[in-house]
Specification:
Layout: H1 3-18, E1 34-36, E2 41-42, H2 49-64, E3 68-69, E4 77-93, E5 101-116, E6 122-136, H3 141-165
Helix pairs in contact: 2-3
Length: 169
């Protein structure tokens, strides 16, 4: 009977030691609480996607709650995002036809730098983050792309915000 309490105590000690450095919530430094997000730089040939991506990133920041969006002069940090690549890949084809796609994957590749407003020191950065969304081709490609852009931008925003708040000092 003495083995059960000893084993439980050993497991508890092992668990506590393994979680000693664990922290709930944001891993951002204590001085980083507000963020300014300028409109993304669009270096892709796809026009106007920077508007949807910027809106999606702002929305993801607000949903996450680790940072508060602020005006540039009042923000602790600035999040600069560059959209580097936009592309479509066919992912499914019509039955009996290996050349007619009926489903595509929209991908948006970006890089970001999160830096302190006061001294421009880098808090977090990534040279490559990709968000994507699979969509059915319906009607024409322009309409199909317009419908898919919002969820692809939201996925990219989720991935960027996740990398920012999971920053490991």
């Amino acid at each position: 009977m003495k083995r059960i309490p000893a084993a439980a105590a050993a497991l508890l000690l092992l668990f506590a030691a393994g979680c000693a450095n664990y922290r709930l919530g944001s891993m951002l430094p204590d001085d980083v609480r507000t963020v300014y997000v300028p409109t993304c730089r669009n270096q892709t040939p796809e026009p106007l996607i920077e508007q949807d991506v910027t809106r999606a990133i702002l929305s993801q920041i607000q949903m996450d709650g680790s940072l508060r969006v602020a005006a540039e002069d009042a923000a602790d940090v600035v999040l600069e995002i560059t959209l580097n690549r936009f592309w479509l890949d066919p992912v499914a084809y019509e039955s009996g036809s290996a050349s007619t796609a009926n489903q595509y994957r929209m991908s948006i590749k970006a890089s970001f730098v999160l830096y302190r407003h006061a001294d421009r020191s880098v808090v977090a950065e990534s040279p490559s983050v990709t968000g994507w969304h699979d969509f059915d081709f319906a009607g024409d490609m322009t309409s199909s792309k317009a419908v898919a852009l919002r969820p692809a931008a939201e996925d990219l925003g989720r991935r960027i915000v996740s990398q920012i708040v999971q920053y490991w000092p």
